[in-house]
Amino acid sequence: SDWQTVTVTLPIIMASDEEVSTFLTSPLVRWVSSLVPHLTREVSWLSLSQGVLFAETLSSLEPGLDLELDPDPSDTSARAKNLRLIVTAIKKFYSESLHQMLMLPLPSARELALIPPTSRSLSQMEDLLLLLLGAAVQSDQKQDFIIAIKNLPLETQHGIVDKIRVVTDNPNMVWNKDLNNPTTMEESQRDAMYQVLVTHAAR
Known about the structure:
Blueprint lengths: L16 H8 L2 H8 L10 H6 L1 H10 L14 H22 L3 E2 L6 H4 L6 H20 L3 H9 L3 H15 L5 E2 L11 H15 L2
Antiparallel strand pairs: 1-2
């Protein structure tokens, strides 16, 4: 008998209201909202998924950066287009300005643009915010960003410091140029770095 191909479409599971609320009050979201002085209300998932907030921060990192975003994207496709430009700009900043290679899979613009978000959308948005934070605190304007972080509530500061460690000290996320010289590492560390590279190459 002839084989038939059956396509199984997995249901999209939306994040719960509690998951979204917890995410929107997380240190990373509080940090990015503090960078936008004209913001008069709490950051919503809608404002994050439109991508415009990220553009303002990226422009301060790299003067002259011209991201042609839709200022008011009306649907998922338009929001995804904005976010694709943001993800590309962040990757380029790490590569060309910081001389670092992103090791984690890049966030999916389509997932980031979903309204309401899925649990995966929240996870991907956290990765995007982490990368933005890592770029900010390693940029030429890092002192300004660090001063701004010190003006946040103490609990948020502690959360941000933990996140900075995640994105700057974790070769599974970002490969720092210092790791390119294996002679400065102990043998166990070299083995661990080799394993990171093998895993990355196998993706």
